[in-house]
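Lab meeting, action items carried over

1. Structure of the two-component assembly. Owner: GW. Status: complete.
Input record:
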Amino acid sequence: MNLRNVSIVYHKELTEWLRDRRTLISTVLVPLLAFPILMVGMTSLMAVMMGKAEKETAKVMVIGGEDSPQLLEKLRKDSDLEIVPAADDYKKQITEKEIRAAVEVPNGFDAALNRGEPQTVNVYYYEGEIKSSFGVNHVEKFFNDYRDSVISGRLASRNLPGSILRPFVVKKENVAPPEKVSGAALGGLLGYMVILLSMTGAIYPAIDLTAGEKERGTMETILSSPLSRVDLVLGKFFLVLSASLSTAILSIISMGTSFYLVGNSGAMAKKDAAVFQLHIGLATVLSVFLMALPLAVLFASALLTIALFAKSYKEAQSYLTPMTFIVVIPAVASLLPGFELNPKLALVPILSTSLVCKEIVAGTFHWNYILLILLSSSVYAAAALFIAVKMFQRESVLFRS
Amino acid sequence: MIEARGLSKRFQDKKRGEIHAVENVSFNCKPGQIYGLLGANGAGKTTTLRMLATILEPSDGTAVICGHDVIEEPEKVRACVGFLSTATALYPRLTAQELVEYFGRLNGLDEATLKNRVDEIFSRLEMNGFRDRRCDKLSTGMKQKTSIARTLVHDPPVMIFDEPTTGLDVMTARTIISFISDCRDRGKAVIFSTHIMSEVERLCDHVGIIHDGKLLEEGTVAELRAKYSERNLEEIIVKVVGPLLSKAED
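Predicted assembly:
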């Protein structure tokens, strides 16, 4: 191996890569702009829509209750509810979203309430429909408040304190530091994104530098130079690796910015927004990248090898597109609850890295697993790079026709 | 300078089985000489030249170029060879100068020598007007000149041209022909394959007629004319190859 030649090839490939408009779009523009636009845009839109739906007065039909003027009067006075006249097709009106819910008041409600007899009020709604859910919430709140006021009145008439119904109170308090809270919520996502993006970032340059070069007729040009095939493949490999890592880094920067913007935009409730306020330190992010580095080497080498086998750009694309699924499936599996690291899983590429990244972001460092995963994924990466070098030495692959 | 010793190349084909693309081809080419390799499409010319340029490895036999064996020392062989064919395209996103410099560096030239070489070649080939233009914006003639500059940048003693004028217009083809002639005048050993007989008559000192992977005839143009009592080179090729074609048809 001649480092000078590897560096010459790398610099030439970098120059060409940076001059390619498609590269600029796929590696820089898409990750830097698409994520913040999607994230901020979608959450703002959602917050606006949800807020609007929540603030809207809910159209609710009251069925029965003619003999309970006291209840009807209270319902009509509630500013969150708009009472519409009863109709037989209330179910249809709910499913067609004309009204949000319907309340069925049993006969003699007011009288039974005064006698202290238990009774049931039925509320009909549309499960899964957001506006209907908001309507039901308003109705439930109304009846809960009404029930509380009735109970308070009954206790007061018997000279009993309110605390008789609440002998003790249960209070929840979070003791995990903020980084662990956001880490548990979004920890898996960071590792998943780094892994997926280092894969997708490598696809285009891997094709361009192999099948693309065959298609453009420059492969024979470079093979006629004194450059050794090992130096050629290493120069190309380092470029694909750079592309892969820069896509991942730019995307993570943009993702961090998006989370910051969403968390601080005021578009979401404070409690929900707290999840988006990532308290992930630079050291953690670097640790995730360190764990993902052997995987990026593996992707760059494997993609170069597969794309080299293709005769044309299109053929290479059809080979590499399914590769995304091979990466996505184990990466997604690691996000599922119950998937925990064990010595066997630590040897499974992609899945192991994804799992350990999740733990690192949550602030847990299992050093034995970290070392085992680094070692195993480095072995896979080295094997993939070795195969890539061997492929570049095979005439049947280079001149496949 | 160039010595092919029983060069053979076999390929595996899924449908046709083993294909003998080149069989036991031997010839010599000395400095200041142009050796023309003549033959129909699929005769084995490109495979032979690719083996000499170490792009393909011979299945049997070998070749020695500038004292280096193509199998044992392929990188040293490539360092003393300039290879040009219609299949050797240019990097579209590099400028003409960047491309020539890239190959100069890969050939081990230091920056000072490289600068002098590039300036000299760009002046000689009248390329200064487009040295900073990207290769994908060059005309066919400019591209051919850039390809020539690429093969010349390390001043190799051996030049290999595989059908270098195929598909080119008259003016661009003339540039190439005069460049090949110039290489001989500068004492380089040149191997050249073509279909165009006028180019052979004008350029070649020695010719070899290759058919079905075998070198059937070899000699100077004058020797072949005398042997076959025929002035027209095309007719000579027909006389050499014709009997084999008739046999194959039978």
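2. GW to write a short summary for the group page. Key points so far: The two ends of chain A are 29 Å apart (CA to CA). Chain A touches chain B at residues 5, 8-9, 12, 15-16, 19-20, 216-218, 220-221, 223-228, 395-396, 399 (CB under 8 Å).
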